[in-house]
Hints:
The chain is α/β, with parallel strands linked by helices and about 280 residues long. The chain has a single domain (about 10-195, about 245-270), classed as NAD(P)-binding Rossmann-like Domain (Rossmann fold), CATH 3.40.50. The protein contains eight helices and nine strands. The chain has helices at about 20-30, 40-55, 70-80, 105-140, 155-160, 165-185, 225-235, 245-255; strands spanning about 10, 35, 60, 85-90, 145-155, 190-195, 210-215, 220-225, 265-270. The strands form two sheets. A seven-stranded parallel beta sheet has the order 3-2-1-4-5-6-9, with helices on both faces. It has a two-stranded antiparallel ribbon with strand order 7-8. Helix 1 (about 20-30) runs parallel beside helix 2 (about 40-55) and helix 3 (about 70-80) runs parallel beside helix 4. It starts with 8 loop residues before the first strand and ends in a 6-residue tail after the last strand. The mean pLDDT is about 95.
Amino acid sequence: MTENLKGRSALVSGSGRGIGREIALKLASEGARIVVNDLDADPANETAEAIRKIGGEAVVCAGSVTEDGFAERFIKTAVDNFGGVDIIVNNAGYTWDTVVQKMPDEQWDAILDVHLKAPFQILRAAQPVISAAAKAEAAEGREVFRKVVNISSIAGTGGNAGQINYSAAKAGIIGLTKAMAKEWGRYKVNVNAVAFGPIRTRLTEAPADGVGKIEVEGKEIRVGINPDLLTQMETTIPLGRVGTPQEAAGAVYLFCQPESNFITGQVVICGGGFVL
């Protein structure tokens, strides 16, 4: 472990699996104390244990980010265990795809809620904690920077057929990021976004015999890209392959380290040069 983020508390939503897990592990490896979240307690606890095994500190706040009261509980977990909030990574989410004429309101609302409304609620819940800390630090003549990293997608920067709900949500999170950067600049909070391109996770990979499935709050949802299509896609990626969750986590870390203290309101695409 290094100590670039020593003493910092970091909340990472959706960190029981995939990219979120790697983000939590990366921040922990740099000394941050992590609040791990996942829809299910078991993967969240597994990530927390993996953090402890590398010498880090972690606590778990399991549950859906769309639950009533979750945002306040998430922030309270950080305050109660680590004394405050220094880094927030709004990562939780999934895809639920179809074309516009086949998409019911439930499908639209579910994706907007998890990718856009939940981050808004988490940041709103964090505001009193961050504001109080920033005012106290300013009174002491100290300049302390905090970080928010929102996760977007190239579906949000360029749109993607069959993903009108996901594209709208991920475009919305960019607008939220830019607005929050202006609102929270006075608190010395850097608010940025990382838009992922093709990253190899359970949401993009599918078995050779068909599309994969995940279960979200009792709903069975089809996910994944056909392996042959994924292979074809790789030929259009300038770097020649799909990214890894570890590389995705590295892009998020860029915005969490002290070297990013004068960068805010920005969107970085982590996609190997691939754009929609």
